[in-house]
Amino acid sequence: MSNLQQSYNAGQTRGQAKEKAEQWTESAKETAHNACDKTANAAQSTKESAQHGQQQASGFIQQTGESVKNMAQGAVDGVKNTLGMNEKKK
């Protein structure tokens, strides 16, 4: 094989190796980008879930507060009735 042919083959091999390396690099970039997107989506989902849980807890606390208030008012009315202090409004 002549030196010219060997140089040509080496250039071909180098060009093919460079193209393959660029393909791998692009594939790695895409994989990293997809992983980043999935992480961002998971973070958003977690945030929304936490906000929903907070809203539910807030609603529960409000309902509990109303129930305690109503029970306390019932107890006060019961004591007033027992003592004959409950004023009947006309």
Structure description:
InterPro entries: LEA1/2/D7/KIN2 (IPR039624). Residues 1-90 are annotated as: Disordered. The chain has one helix and no strands. It has one helix spanning 3-83. The longest helix has 81 residues, at 3-83.
Keywords:
90 residues; mainly alpha; 90% helix
Distance between the termini: 120 Å
Q: Give the overall form.
A: rod-shaped
Give a quick account of the main beta sheet: strands, pairing sense, barrel closure: none
Order of helices and strands: H
Strand content: under 5%
Number of extended strands: 0
Number of helices: 1
The radius of gyration is 38 Å
* Whole-number mean pLDDT: 89
Helix content: over 70%
- Counting helices, strands and paired strands, the structural category is mainly alpha
Q: Which regions have little confidence, pLDDT < 50, spanning 5+ residues? A: none
Q: Summed up, what is this model?
A:
With 90 residues, this protein is mainly alpha-helical.
Question: Would you spell out the secondary-structure blueprint of this structure?
Answer:
Blueprint: H1 3-83
